[in-house]
Amino acid sequence: ADARMAAAYAKFDEMVHIRTPNDRTLVVKLENPTAYFLEMCAFITYVPVHADSVDAQTSVNVDTGMLMQDPYWIRPIDSATDDKPALVTNGPYKLQRRRFKRDLLMVANEHFWARKLPDGDPRKPRNDSILEIIVPDANAQRMMYERGEIDWIPNMPTTGGIAADLYELKQKGLRDDVHTVPSAGTYYYMFNTQEKLVDGSPNPVTDPRVRRALSLAIDRQKIVETITRLGQPVARTFVPKGSLVGYDAPVEAGPEYDIEQARKLLADAGYPNGEGLTGVSILYNTGSGHELIAQQIAYNWEQQLNIGVSLYGQEVKVFGERLKKQDFVVARSGWFGDYLDPTTFLDKFYSTNGNNDGRYNSEKFDGLMNQAAAELDPQKRMALLREAETTMLQDAAISPIYQYVTIHLFDPKRVKNMHLNPWNFRRLELVEVNRD
Question: What does pLDDT average to over the chain?
């Protein structure tokens, strides 16, 4: 086992260019220019962990040489023992208690640098603990909030009508504790762009003119006003407009609601008045309100374009399996960005990307993305990414529907320093609750 570990470490040193010349310096050598590298470093995947804690609970499988890790090395303080110590953190909190599916209690970390700052410094933490209560049911969440048992519901479930009812009260000026924030995420319909479907039959949406016609025939405004009812911004691009400083999403390239243009495109593709266009279907996962949106879109296509549409609702596991096998014609989808750069969205459409379930394949798009990856000038790079998204939208690889919103419930007179934003980046230690 020791020899295998030594060989593994030697291979790591050969292939991975990460060095620590001293205790306070990390050196990373990149294979290619990566303009968003610092944003990646701030992404949760790259958060440092306490090496000694991890190493102490890591062993080697003598048969395979694989590293095996105790999944409970993140023990809270109240369940730690001499041989199983508590999780070591360097942030503003320590994990005091964790009860599965019940709650999680974080208490102040007395070693956190900002706690030593003088009173009045804006960086100094404003609270000493945070109790997160696990309440899956939206009705129960709201009742606990109304009774004053919780201060903040950070992400209200948007299905089931509760959030929509609260949003309506907010619009009428009856509640000032309902907060809606456009999210860095897009709800969209995805097209299978391959020539053949999985059963070998012709794909009815392989022609980009057909895909664009279908996209133009979706009444997005009606969807957000009568179905979702949460004030979601209608989407015409994949990268949400206004979500990234320095990136101008190509709204002009995205679809509007234009029935006449949709009919013209269908006729140009050889389907005048929809004649001969068969086999169009929509795949969606059940149980999250997607049924009503699918029904509305199918109605648009049937009434406005004179084409038949089949609807297939599947439970989420089967739905995911069908996406990965390209066993669909049109499928509902959604995507949230992870880090502050357009590539967190656009990389999905590389022809070789594993998340490219519609198998969109464009040499022009790939080429523009590759040029952007090598471009060091920030403005030129953003222009290349914008052209890449324009290409993908003109090819109608997807049909954007709306930009997601997040619904928060808290009293702004009591709960301060939330700083709501599209990415849900939160400095919880700066949140202040006035209980007077």
Answer: 93
